[in-house]
Amino acid sequence: DHQQTKKSHSISMRAARDEDRPRRSRRIHRNAVSKAAQQRKDGYKCKCGATLSTRQSLTRHLQTALIHRSRKRNAVQPPPPPKPVCRPAPDPATLPSALRRSVQDFTRNGFTVCEHVLSKDQIRQCRTAVFETFNRAMGTVQRLSLQKKLEEIGFTKFKMRSAGRFDLEIDQFSEDDFSYLHRDAPWRPLVEAILGPDAILAHTGVMLSMPDSVTQPWHSDGDHLHKRTHLPPHCLNVFVPLIPLTRENGTELVPTSHRQGQYDVNREPLVPELETGDIFLFDFRLRHRGLGNRGRRPRPVVYLQYCLPSFKDTMNFSVRRYLVLPDLPPEHRRRHERNSDESNGDTVAEREGEGEGEGGREEEEEEEVTLWDSDESDGEQVEDEPEEKLSLVERQRIARAEHRVRAATAPRIAGFVVYTGAPLLVDDGSGNWYPGVMKRVEITDTKVFLRVHYVGWSTRHDFSCTLDSPRIRPAGVEVTIGTGALGPVCKYRRRK
Question: Which residues have CB under 8 Å from 447's CB, separation 6+?
């Protein structure tokens, strides 16, 4: 019954449509006649906006427009500007055996390692320039209270890539004394064998990883130029470590992840272990990350970016994206910096006497922060030197300098300054607060794990917690005064 009703309904609808067809055609004809009459009255309009009186004039107008268009199309156009053509890389078969193996490793795995490239004197010279620039830049940021801008935006020559990881541009590297980094670089033949003879040095900088810095997320410095086809490398990075790189402070990477479609390849990551003077090159598209620095000393690594002339990296080094770090005013400079800038002929004793007349303000200035000992001769760190050679006063001075450096460069998370040895307030579980320190710090992608120690008490009271635990508070926070089980209550306050 339902099918019969549906069929009869469709037949009735078709019959009604056939009956309405003559009326619809008459209506269309009537509308066309009225439209033609209106056009004769108002004139014919062309698509270009011209209004013509008759159909013949409209036809002539269209013919003239078609003629002009054809002439314009057939006119001789000036040739487009030529695109930059890069010379191809040399054939690997024509290269020396050592260079050919490095090129093959780079093409297959996305990276290659070269040993004993720079001398110890060159490494020491680079390290001195790096820490002089960092001390000067960090001193400017601290004295002008620009820490927030450094963390949120960054500056053109001084950036914070992540917590405890700084990106520096060293102006001294462009001088002739550092020609082994640019003009006379010993790795230049290898770069030209990979990219071609037209490869250019696009950027030079230093990645400085401080102690207890955070491990970076997995990333690549840039994407492929084509979405489907794997093309030869168009950009690469050269890393020159200024201290030995190990699994505790090195760079972790995934081999073969630079190829198209293999970024998420499930392969075992590895960390190249390098000595001072070694370098390693890796593809711009390789998946990698910088590990957190678990050592006691900063980890400086010089990086150089080479690319083809037709490529420009606007993602990592954008001028519009960052701010300009201002110069330090004279009233904020240290005494020896002001003395070196003055050239009026006054003696040092006279200038010191003037400083004492002003209230001895220069005498109260704190010591300059030094990150590295200038007396090292073989590229080893200061912590490897036997402590018997240093007096108690010298060891205390070095400890104070290290504490100031860590406090200035350590990551700030939820109000805490997170580094090994950082002060904080600790609750004993009864509402009484005591001075404590972060004995051990482990920073992951999601949480911060601490081992907390009560100052002046046995290690049996130490406990582990996370940074969001209610038992700890930042140093200097007002707390409730009372008597606890550990002894006298805490009256600890952070020094201004």
Answer: 466, 467, 468
Q: Is 50 in a helix, a strand, or coil?
A: coil
pLDDT of residue 52: 58
Residue 176 DSSP label: G
Q: Could you list the beta-strand ranges (E) of 151-220.
A: 158-162, 165-168, 200-209
Q: What is the DSSP string of 58-75?
A: HHHHHHHHHHHHHHHHHS
Q: Are 222 and 284 in contact (CB under 8 A)?
A: yes
The region, left, alpha or beta by phi > 0 then psi within -120 to 50, assigned to residue 446 is alpha
Q: 144: which residues sit within 8 A by CB, 6+ positions away? A: 326, 328, 332
| Contact (CB, 8 A) for 281 and 235 | no
Contact 289, 251 (CB under 8 A): yes
Name the residue among 103, 81, 79 with its Cα closest to residue 91. 103
Q: Categorize the per-residue pLDDT at 50 as very low, low, confident or very high, splitting at 50, 70 and 90.
A: low
- Is 1 in a helix, a strand, or coil? coil
**Structure tokens belonging to residue 286:** 């390789």
Q: What is the DSSP string of 321-382?
A: TSBPPPPPPGGGS-HHHHHHH--S---HHHHHHHHHHTTSTGGGPPPPP-SS-TT-SSS--G
Contacts of 282 (CB under 8 A, 6+ apart): 110, 111, 112, 236, 237, 239, 253, 258, 288
Distance CA 280, CA 97 (A): 18
Whole-prediction pTM: 0.58
Q: Which residue from 224, 245, 328 is spatially nearest to 291, judged by alpha carbons?
A: 245
- The answer to whether the beta carbons of residues 267 and 188 sit under 8 Å apart is no
DSSP letter (8 states) at residue 39:
H
Q: How many CB atoms lie within 10 A of CB 328?
A: 17
Lowest mean pLDDT, pick from 103-112, 206-215, 315-324, 332-341: 332-341
Spatial separation of the C-alpha atoms in residues 149 and 449, rounded to whole Å: 27
Q: How many residues does the chain have?
A: 496
Tens digits of residue pLDDT in 240-275: 999 999 888 889 999 989 888 888 777 888 999 999
Q: How far apart are CA 204 and CA 306, in angstroms?
A: 9
On the question of pLDDT at 154 being above 70, the answer is yes
d(CA 105, CA 98): 11
Q: Tell the residue number behind the tokens 């003055």, with chain if given.
A: 342
In order, the DSSP letters of 85-113 are: -PPPPPPGGGS-HHHHHHHHHHHHHSEEE
d(CA 199, CA 309): 7
